[in-house]
TrEMBL record:
It comes from the Bacteria. Keywords: DNA-binding, Transcription, Transcription regulation. The keyword Phosphoprotein does not apply. PROSITE patterns: HTH_ARAC_FAMILY_2. It comes from Streptomyces flavidovirens. This is AraC family transcriptional regulator. Residues 220-318 form the HTH araC/xylS-type domain. It holds the Pfam family HTH_18. InterPro entries: AraC_lig, AraC_XylS_family_regulators, Homeodomain-like_sf, HTH_AraC.
Amino acid sequence: MERPGDEGGESGESDDLLSELLKPLRLTGVFDSRWHVNAPWAIEGDAEQSCAVLHYIVEGGCWISGEGQTPLELNVGDLAVFPTGTAHRLSDRPDRQGMPLRAVLPERQPGTSGEIRIEGSGPESRLLCAGLHYDASAATGLYKALPWALVLDGPQVAAEPLLRDTLRLLAAPDRPVGPGDRLITLRAFEMALVLALRPLLRQLADNPAALPVLRHPGISRAMVIIATRFAEPWTIESLAREVGMSRSAFTAAFRTLVGDAPARHLTGRRMQEAARLLRETTVAQSAVPQRVGYQSSVGFHLAFRKWFGTTPGEYRIAAGPA
């Protein structure tokens, strides 16, 4: 678990890489809940697939803990983000065993809300909790490599006024309800996630133990190239030369730091952009291959089908009008 310090992040390619990591994050649905709990209490959350989890402390406090992790205390105004939905426990004491979340919130469909009330004789706490479902194709190897939990304390949240005010509005018991509420809530949580990750990731750039790829000049530069120049005709050899490394050293370091082979990471970025063009724009399907770095339409078609399990044409039809 990481609680970043007060130092600012580096400029240059680290900032570019962090920007590219945040850019594709788009939520597809949100389940949010308000917790009113009195000690003693503890709730065990399951691991969530393609879902970030957010906990904002409105009143009181709690402990968060996970398997093999050091428990961390949260107080009023603190925000905890679990980027990849790792299983964890929230409780009034770090050693208390709890009930499964599914026992108190059996239905957690994106686009809906819930409420947890636990009556007890001890101190009261209030939390805003949310499961933020995102497009799995947008989760890069770097995103998946983020620490299991990231925390902004109250002063750090207060230093981001837009984040602070958005969280307060989302946590309000009388949150406005009306036409378009589901979409507004979705985009508000999406903004909160990006606003929270931005300072967290900048500070992680100063902590090589937390995100080592940001400290490796060759691999971090390659990540920026893949993120921004994916349409160029790269090979593993040309990428390695571009960042001043041998092919073997580049491939080994990339796998170690990113958790993926460079060729697969490049393909993933190209497929991500192809899906966006098919889903969100009116660019002709025949023009998509060249836009994402394929000289052969047949090669692109085969790669797309292998990646998504469907053809580009079927994908566009299923996505509906741009």
